[in-house]
Amino acid sequence: MSLQVGKDKVGAIGAGFGIMTVVGGLAFSELASAYLQSTYGPLLNLLGVRLGADAAQLNWISAAYLLSSVVCVPVLAKLGDLYGHKRMVVITLVIVIVGTVLAAFATTFPLFLSGMLVQGAVSALLPLEMAIVRERAGDQASKGIGLLVGCLGGGAVVGILLTGLLGTVLDLTLVMLVPAALLVLSLLIIILTVPETQIRSEGRIDWKGASLLGIGLALVLYAISNGKTLGWLSPAILGMIVVGLALLFLFVRVEKTVRHPLIDIKLVTRGGVGFYLILMLLFGIQQLGSGPVNSLYVASKPGKVGYGFGLDSLGVSLTLVPYALMLMIGAVVGHALVRRMGQMQTLIWANVLVIAKYAMLIVFSRDLAIFTAAQFVGGLGVGIFIAVLPAIIVGLAPKDASGIAGAMYNTTRTLAGAVGGAVFAAIMSSMFLPAAKVPSLDAFLVIWAICGGLSVVIMAFLPFSRHLGRVRTTMSDETLQDQDLGLVSQD
Description:
Layout: E1 2-4, H1 19-37, H2 44-51, H3 55-83, H4 85-105, H5 109-119, H6 125-136, H7 141-166, H8 172-193, E2 199-201, H9 207-230, H10 235-257, H11 265-269, H12 273-289, H13 291-299, H14 302-305, H15 313-363, H16 368-396, H17 402-430, E3 432-433, E4 438-439, H18 441-461, H19 477-484
């Protein structure tokens, strides 16, 4: 059950707030958050020296962020549904700024890791802002959501390139404070220009469910992240997986019985949301899991291992930046493609582009020009897909559950990235060149084949959806979205 607070008309922009101002302010925060998330990759070597951390410890930087995100996203999103999405965006930004400053000034690895744990809350921004756009942007909601997702790609491009450049001329602390400054500016913009949502869920936060979900997911993700190091069949890894899955099973049972659940299981199992979360899981494995694989490949020296292009860090960035650029463009044009072709055909063609990318990598793995061209093709497909799918998931949810529906999408992507990274790491560690102790070319080819195969599976699943429209339409964006999702009222 939901209720409306305040006097603003739901779906209207609100007095004094234009749609470009609302969506633009939120989009800037996504640019800032993406910049932050892409900051630390180019700085890993410098961080290792400063913090006295070895390669194994540095892997915990991403692991800590990942584990924190899984816990924070559903809790903060539900709090947004209960108390206001803008309010939680502001609180989340403050939390992330604190974590960013803590990491920037940290001189020991544990303190830096604490900053990364606090920063994990940044992943909650997207689902919270998706909920704001859905209510406040009216007919332009799906377009606004696509813009938010696209800005993640733009921020990543700027973050990768600018961090690499600044890292050569500025002190490391100053380089890491740049995203903090952007986040502070974003905080001020949102406070001044973005109105609060008016629809609220009734009830209270389900802390028992949040604890079960957070601990269960954390155990599973920790096991996946450390399976290669500790051994997949070690008692510690198997124990964490068993306990984690048991807690997640108990979480589902609890959520079915409590009056105000953290996640409405019926929303997943009966509303059609679960089907699209499965698609996102499959897509996210190849999208998020293959990034480090591609970076490692282009940096490999062909004279020593027989493959790769031997590029330095700047060369790697320039080779992979086209992917992020096209992801941003794809996220923007995805909305227009839905208007012309419908959601079904748009999602199918997005996966065709992804399949083409991995086919190019497999067939022309020794050609740098074609490798780079494949990044353009794949980035466009990924951008289109991740612009369309979250709008579907949020659209299927009741309006008072918009935030938690977006959170489920984000959490699914996080899980997918962890699973993909772990599986691909296992492949690379099992298929290696004994003399050089590095992955063989076959390991890369197998991973790329798996990634392309996942998009084939998604294309096979899409026709079974009963929510996707297949005909062209010139209706308004909101009506188009509702019809494609089977939500147009028949009263």
